[in-house]
Amino acid sequence: MNPDFPFWLRATHLINFLLIGMLLRSGWEILASLPRLWWRKDSAPGTEWLRFTRRKLPKEEGVYTSLMDEKSLSPLIGLPGRGNVGLGRHWHGLSVMLWVLNGVVYVVLLFATGLWRRIIPTSWDVIPEAWDSFVIYLGFGVPSIEHFQPYDALQMLGYSFVIFILAPFMMLTGLAMSPAIRSRYPWYVKFWGGHQGARSLHFIAMVLMCGFIVMHVSLVFLVHREHNVVHMVFGDVDTARYAQALVIMIGTIVAVVVVWIALSYLTLADRVRTHHFLAWFTELGRKVFLNRMRPRLDAQKSYTDADISEFHWTNGLPPTAEESEEWIAARDRDWEGYTVTIGDDTGSGASKTLTLDDLRALPQASYIATHSCMQGWSATSRWTGVRLRDLLALLGPKPEAARYVLVDSYGLAQKMIDNRPREPFYAAIDLDTAFEDDTILAYERNGAPIDLYLGAPARLRVESNHGYKHVKWVRSIRWIADYADYGDGRGGTREDSALQVFNGRI
Amino acid sequence: MPDHVTTTRLQVSGIRTDDEVRRALQALYDRFAELGVGAATFEVADAGPARLYIKHRESVAPDTGEIAAALARAGDFRLVG
Question: In what residue span(s) does the Cytochrome b561 bacterial/Ni-hydrogenase domain sit (chain A) (predicted)?
Answer without folding.
Answer: 5-232
